[in-house]
Amino acid sequence: MDDRAQPQDRELRVGVVGVGQRADLATLANLPGVARVVSCADPSPRGQDDARRLFGDGVTVRERYEEMLGDDLDAVFVLTPDDLHTRPALFFLEAGVAVFVEKPLAITLADCDALLAAAHRTRTRLYVGHNLRHLPMLRRVRELIDTGAIGRVRAVWCRHFVGHGGDFYFKDWHAERARTTGLLLQKGAHDLDAIHWLAGGYTRDVVAQGALAVYGDNPRRAGREAAPGQERMPDWFDPEIWPPAKLRDLHPVVDVEDISMMLGRLDNGVLTSYQQCHFTPDYWRNYTVIGDEGRLENFGDGIDGDPATVKVWNRHRSGFRDDADLVVAVPAASEGLHGGADRALVEEFLRFAASGGATETSPVAAREAVAAAASATASLRAHGARVDVPALDPVLVDYFARHQDDPAR
């Protein structure tokens, strides 16, 4: 597929691989005159039934994604569990079909690099669903940085309080290292991409610590597991259970950490910190960005339809003061998950699939988020040893910079 921008002259024919927990995202691609979901593939009966429910009786439903090539697709969403991203994404890249891969890009650095190499070799458009770059709160933070509100960025901190972590990540495949590498990657890659975006650089070395502090001793699910694809988080989610130690029926295998902390040094000298905890009572992200002329911090993130506020302190020194020098209110989104970020993400992908051009997300950035997370996971499992983050092949860096890079870098 030619990377040069071309005008769209017909409705895109879109496919969906994996009709599970995140399949609602692809419903946003049904835009008359722009795109239409015409084909889905899922090996489970529940996924096949959901495909018809979400996309209509007219959608072609298949068991194997390889069969979708006969459906004349222009673009495809790969929304499988994380460890199953690589094969279908490679398959459609080789076929010249524009590919949207849900975040994280893959669970190993080798698979990430294989996907980028395939997109380069075939000149097929590759897009990764890092929706936080479209989150209204973070976009306000980025605008404040770009306008010089805090001077030059010197540090970025993120605390992620994952209040529903036990239900969301410890009752299914997310709890297994073999399927995620770890939650510092599976969950953290999203925030690490945002940290890189705000800081204007990529992590080159890390140290980390972590533990399976709460869910390691919780009772596991008894008996045989449900057939793959037949159980999903809403089937068991109960926000009334407290404290987290009371959770029962966890996944039979739980070997990922439920609390992790990492420190990183970026290629531009910015220092970063990321903390993730899956047993807090609250669920939100708190970013602090420190420059050489001030600092900013968000209160509330707007992801679940709640309002958020970004405060800036940049006029003088003082003790603690709640009355920041600048307060930017981010209204609650009127529609859609993630503060409307999902809709913006899908619309950008459809535009990119149809006509190319720069995007707010970046395959290179997605790879670098996985690289940082995988390296940090290696560090925490080596008792905090310093780990260097492998750099991407310069040929691929140059290719995506010329054809598809984040316009802000």
TrEMBL record:
InterPro entries: Gfo/Idh/MocA-like_OxRdtase_N, Gfo/Idh/MocA_oxidoreduct, GFO_IDH_MocA-like_dom, NAD(P)-bd_dom_sf. Residues 139-297 form the GFO/IDH/MocA-like oxidoreductase domain. It holds the Pfam family GFO_IDH_MocA_C3. SUPFAM superfamilies: Glyceraldehyde-3-phosphate dehydrogenase-like, C-terminal domain, NAD(P)-binding Rossmann-fold domains. It comes from the Bacteria. Residues 12-130 form the Gfo/Idh/MocA-like oxidoreductase N-terminal domain. This is Gfo/Idh/MocA family oxidoreductase.
